[in-house]
Description:
Elements: H1 2-12, E1 15-17, H2 32-43, E2 46-48, H3 50-57, H4 61-75, H5 96-107, E3 113-115, E4 121-123, E5 157-162, H6 164-176, H7 183-195, H8 206-218, H9 222-225, H10 232-244, H11 252-262, H12 273-283, H13 290-301, H14 307-314, H15 318-327, H16 330-333, H17 340-351, H18 357-366, H19 370-377, H20 381-386, H21 388-395, H22 397-407, H23 413-426, E6 433-435, E7 443-445, H24 456-479, E8 487-490, E9 519-521, E10 526-535, E11 540-541, E12 544-552, E13 556-559, E14 565-566, E15 569-571, E16 577-578, E17 582-591, H25 592-597, E18 600-609, E19 620-625, E20 645-650, E21 658-665, E22 670-672, E23 676-678, H26 688-699, H27 704-715, E24 718-720, E25 727-729, H28 731-734, H29 737-740
Parallel strand pairs: 1-5, 2-5, 8-24, 8-25
Antiparallel strand pairs: 3-4, 6-7, 9-22, 10-17, 10-19, 11-16, 12-13, 12-18, 14-15, 15-17, 18-21, 19-20, 21-22, 21-23
Helix pairs in contact: 1-4, 1-7, 2-4, 7-8, 8-10, 11-12, 14-17, 18-19, 21-22, 23-24, 24-27
Amino acid sequence: MKTTALLKISLRQNAIFIPSEMIANDIKKLSGSTSVFVTNVSKLGFTFSEALLHALNNVKPNYKLEVLEVLREVLGTDKNWAPLVKEWNIPTGESAIDHVATFFANFFQTKNGTTLQCGHIIPNNTFPLERYNGCPFCGTPFEFVKIENYGQGSKLKVLDLWSEKELEDFYKSLLQSKTALDATQADSLKMALKYLPLPKVDIAMKETLMLVIDVLIEEGKAENACQYFKSPTDILRYLWFKNTGLLQIIEPKTIIKRISKNATHFYNPLDTSAQAKVASQKDLKLKYSRKECLMVASWLNNLDMDVETMCEMMHPKRGMWVRFIRALRLAEYSKRKGFEKLAFLMDVFYNQVYDVWQSKVNSSRLKFDADKTFALLKQRPGLFARSLFSNMLWFGADETVAHFEEIIDKVPARLVFTLNMYAQNYFDKNMQRSVKPLGGTNKRIAPNGLLKLYDDDQLEAMKNQIEELCVLAMKKRFAAIANKNKTIYIDPQLFNMPVSIGDRSENVQDLPVALMGTRFPIAGNEVRLFMQWGAGLPAQHLDMDLSCHIAYEDKADICSYHRLETVGCKHSGDIRSIPAKIGTAEYININIDDLAKAKAKFVTFTCNAFSNGSITPNLVVGWMNSKHPMKISEKTGVAYDPSCVDHQVRVTQNVAKGLVFGVLDVAKREIIWLEMTFGGQVVQGLDFKGVQALLAKLSSKLNIGSLLQLKAEAQGLTIIQDQNADEIYNAQWAINAAAVTQLLID
Length: 746
C-alpha cells in the first residue's frame, strides 16, 4: 500500500518514485523484462526520461509490475468501458415513437416482441436490438467488455525520476504552500502524512494544518496538536472537518439545503428531497465521547488569547458554536478546577458582553465616517484588502488607496495578486462576475451598482491605481530579498500556466495535474469525451449523464441522452443502471471541422446526476485527443484508449449535481480546463453566461511567467533563453503548484 500511494503521488507530478534501496545494479544494457515493460507502458500513453529508464532497468521486476499496476489502475483498464450502443458513431435510427410503442407493449404485455434480461418487452420493428449492449428502453447494460484498442495516441507523456529527495521536497512544499490546497494536493498530502514522518517545517495555511492535526490525534498525540491551535476558529475548523470531511467551515443549513435540492426530481413521485433533508440533519448531529470533550475543553482553556477576542472570533459562527458547546458538554467541564478560563469564556459568550469588530466597521461605514472606518480596517489588513474595491466606490478611490498603501506590506501576497488580477473585471460596468459561495454552486453576480456613479475614465484610473500599487508592493518584496544570481531562464510554457490563487479544483486529478485555466491544444480533428462510473458499487439504478452544450453566435444546441446526434456531436447512448463492481461508460464524439463549418463558438463539457442525489463519488470524466483516428469497436462500441487521454478528473466531493469539466474553443482548437458546479438534473440547467464569466475570470489570472518577470525586474536578473542560467524555471518545476506559491513573498 505504501509503494502504491507514493507512486500515485509522484505520477500526479509527472514522475515515478523509485527508492534508492530498490536500485540494485548499474547495468546500462536494457534487460528483456524492461523492454517488455516499456512496450506495455507506451500502450498506456507514457514513456520514460533517460534517468528514469536507467533506474527502472536496475530495479527488480516486482517493482516494475507495481508501477504498471498503478498506471493501469489510474487509467481504469480493468473497468467496463462498453457503452449502450455498438458502433455508436453510426445512428441506430431510434426515435421517440419507439419508446412510446415499447411503453405500451410493456403496459399491455404484448406477445409480439423480444423479452430482455431486465424483463422489458421490445416490440418488433422498433429498436434494432443487434446494435445494443443492453436494454434500449431502460438503459440497463447486459454486455461488459474491457478496452480493445491501445496505443492510438499521437504523443507520449514523458515521466521523470523521483528519488527520496524529490519526494521529500514535494511533501514539504505541500505543507508550506501559501495558497489553500486543491483536492489533488490535499489527497496527496493525506497519503504522505500516512506513510512518511512529519518534517519540521512551518505550515502556512489553516486548512493544511487540519490534515496534520488529524494525523497527530489519530496517533494519540493530542497534546502535540494543541500547539497548532491559535484561535477558536482553528478548533471549530478541525471539529467540522472531522464531522463532515470539509476543510472549509460551511454552515449546516447550507449543506442540508444543498443535499435536499440535489434529491429533487422532475417526476414528483420520485422526489426524495424531504427524506434527504431529514437524513442529512441526522448525519450532521454532533456526538462526542468524554475523552473528546475533555480534549476540546483543554484546547479552548489553553488558548493564548484574551476571552473577549475569543468571543468576537466565535461570534460569526455563533449558531454552530452553541451546538458544539452543548455536544461537548463544555458548560460541565468549565466547572472543573483548572478550567477557570473556559468558565469565563462561557459566561462572556452566552451573555454576549463583548464588542464585534465587523459591527463597528459596518456602523461607521453607513455613517460615512471614513476616518473611523479606515482606522478599523487598518487593524485587519486582510479584511481591508477583501473590501478594498467596494470601499473605493463608497469613499472615493484616492482616499481609500492612500490608507491601504499604509498597510499593504502586511497583506498576504496571494491577496495582493488577487486584487491586481480581478480589478479589470470588477471596475467594468458591463461585466458580470463569477463567484462561488461556500458550499454552493458557481453563480453570476451583477456589477456593483455604485459603478454607475463613475464615468469610464474614472473607472479606468481606479484599475490603473490598483495595478500600480500592487506591482510596486510586490517589487519591493522581491527587491528586499538578497539574490547573488545574475541570470534567469523562464520557460515560454510558463506564460500559459496560471498561478494557483483562488478557484481551486474540488476533484482529484490522478494523471499529471493541471491548474484551472490551463489550455490543451488539439492535435487532430476529433475530441472524444468519456465518463466512467459505478466501479466498486453493487448493481443498481444509478443514472449519470454525459452531455455537451454548443454555443453559437445567436443560438445554442445540446448533445445529450435525449439528443444523441446533432451537428458535430454524437452520443453513445443513455445508460441508467450500473453492473456490479465494474462500472459502465458513456462517450461523446466531437468533430471540430463540422462545428467550425456550422460557425460554433464554444462547446462546454458537462456531467450530471439524473438520479436523486449528487454525482457519484469516483466517477471519472475527461477527454481524449489524438492526431491519429481513434477507433470505435464495431462489436462492442468501446471507444476508450488510455494512450489518447489528454486530461481526466475523479469526482470526490459529494454535493455537486452538475459539473462542467472543460470548454472547447472551436476557433482556437484548444480546450480550456476548468471546473464549475451547477444545479439541475440535465445540461439545460447550465448557465452558459456563468461559464463565460468564469472564463473571463480565469483569463485575467496572473501567469507564472509574468510573476517570474516581475521577480527578475525587481532583483536585477537578466532573462536569457539558455537553460544554463543561474536560476531555471521550467514546466517540470511549475507542475508543483505548491512550490510555485513560494514566489508569493509575505
